[in-house]
Design goal:
The structure is a homodimer of 195-residue chains.
Chain A (H helix, E strand, L loop, with lengths): L8 H20 L8 H8 L3 H8 L2 H22 L10 H18 L1 H9 L9 H15 L8 H10 L3 H9 L5 H16 L3
Helix pairs in contact in A: 1-2, 1-4, 1-6, 3-4, 4-6, 5-6, 5-10, 6-9, 7-8
Chain A binds a DNA duplex (30 and 30 nucleotides) through helix 1, helix 2 and helix 3.
DNA sequence: GAGAATGCGGACCGGTGGTCCGCTTGGCTG
DNA sequence: CAGCCAAGCGGACCACCGGTCCGCATTCTC
């Protein structure tokens, strides 16, 4: 859609300042809950009203920050080359997509955590989730012999990459990123059937 | 451990009243977040101070309610007969335990949801989780050819039964309890290797 | 029945997400 | 450059939450 009006310059500046400040605050903080909207507003040098008018509510802000981070990966999956893109054969694409998603969550642990507990506390309400699930479901349904289960299998595979699980494995259990990626890959192989 | 003193009669009565009130409030409410500690205190006909002295904090209260509900299942898994109990062969016990756990969450959707988002928002901090994970890990490690992956596999299987996923499938996707149990069983079979 | 200890309850507190409205600022117009 | 108007701003303000605290009522003991 075309924009209705030319946006004011300061509005744009503020938007960027808020995104940058929120990104950094979430990255630094131990828990997403330790970052309040007041904190973000203060760090961005902006009033609270501005923040809420721009992003609606806390969930909207987190969603916007997350979106700005994950956009490249999303584009690669949506229209990039194999193995992530749509041209890749499903048996290769599914593990590739899951590994890429896990890598992203490892690189953006706190932000991913924040996103998944935003919005009534359920990741399943984020538009984001439905998109990834759709990608996986479609790929899985193209695999031989698993028509009906594609939907649930996609959910189950995504559940194995949830941000709080990643956080738990990396934190409490001290698992390395490499180790986690290997475990996930092995698990996915088991589910898809080793070849 | 033996109790240090005889508990006062009114204290016991209040404890029961609070557990019953909380159980009902969580069951009724749409989201666990809609139930405040004031609500519970009011519904139980008890002061807020009582509530916090008894249970420490919100997480403690939810944990106590949950524990009182799940205790029978826990006992069955810990010391009951096959297929849930420890005597069952792992290949049968793992699916049986997961199905029982899923059934419990289906029967106690809101309470399970409340528990899993209590305590910093991560289910992995609940003592409860570590226990189930231990059961599954041990059973899996007794299966041939999957030594190292037992830990991660246990996490991944449990992730497929998470309360918010159950809630999403039952609510938004309109999946029936029977359907969900069948899907989970099929998924578990795939992971363990069909026989 | 008296005394001590145990438990009770609700006023109170700091902090949160979210709203509101008087004022500032930026951009168009002549 | 001056003037105008609306888009945008900011922070005081609000309702509510989890959690604390302490004067007071209840229960148990002898």
């Amino acid at each position: 859609m075309a924009e209705r009006k030319a946006a004011r310059a300061d509005a744009l500046r503020n938007r960027e300042a808020v995104l940058a400040a929120a990104d950094e605050l979430f990255a630094r903080s131990e828990s997403p809950r330790g970052v309040s909207m007041d904190d973000v507003a203060a760090a961005a040098g902006v009033g609270k009203g501005t923040l809420f008018r721009r992003f609606g509510d806390r969930t909207g802000l987190i969603g916007a920050v997350f979106e700005s981070r994950i956009e490249p990966l999303r584009a690669a999956v949506e229209a990039g080359p194999a193995p992530l893109g749509p041209a890749a054969p499903p048996r290769e694409r599914v593990p590739a997509v899951l590994d890429a998603l896990l890598r992203f969550k490892l690189d953006n642990r706190h932000l991913s955590l924040a996103l998944e507990e935003a919005g009534s506390g359920s990741p399943y309400q984020a538009a984001h989730y439905a998109w990834w699930h759709g990608i996986l479901r479609d790929a899985l349904s193209r695999l031989p012999g698993r028509g009906d289960d594609a939907d649930f299998t996609a959910h189950a595979l995504l559940a194995a990459t949830r941000a709080d699980l990643v956080e738990h494995l990396a934190g409490v259990e001290g698992m390395s990123p490499r180790g986690m990626r290997d475990r996930l890959a092995a698990f996915v192989d088991t589910v898809l059937g080793r070849v």
